[in-house]
Amino acid sequence: MRPIFVVAMLALFCVSPRTAAAQDCETSENQMELNLCAAEALEEADTRLNTAYRAIESRLTGEDDLKQRLRATQRAWITFRDAECRFLNANAEGGTIFPMLESQCLADITSERADKLEDYLVCDEIDMSCPVPDAQ
After folding, report:
1. Contact by Cβ (8 Å): 98, 92
2. How many other CB atoms are found less than 10 A from the CB of residue 36?
3. Cα-flanking dihedrals φ and ψ of residue 129, to 5°?
4. Hey, is 3 helix, strand or coil?
5. Structural domain boundaries in the chain
6. What is the CATH number of domain 30-136?
7. Residue 57 in contact with residue 133, Cβ under 8 Å?
8. Per the database record, which ranges form the Lysozyme inhibitor LprI-like N-terminal domain (predicted)?
9. What is the pLDDT of residues 15-35, one digit of tens each?
């Protein structure tokens, strides 16, 4: 009986966030499903962020100073995002709800940053507050 228990426990630990795709996140009822759905939302936000970041970086060809500033800004933003979510979820740390809350927080802040980076890709040519040159 013990080997069956070990196999069952391994199966639980090997569930990836991609398994959440099989979940109906609108009707999830248990904490494990909710955690997986929140992890999936974070993965989607992170994909959007990385896509926008790479598009900006590709537009900064020959703009080494701007590229360095972009990298420094992104590193600082990641530090802020992670610290903000650790602060906001401190009371839940160690609980079963913590992974969901942490993923939701990270996803929300990451999505906001992705929105900002995406805005940089479509700002007006005469907008001096836009650091990204037009692609044309």
Report:
1. yes
2. 25
3. -85, 0
4. helix
5. 30-136
6. 1.20.1270.180
7. no
8. 26-117
9. 444 444 455 788 878 899 999
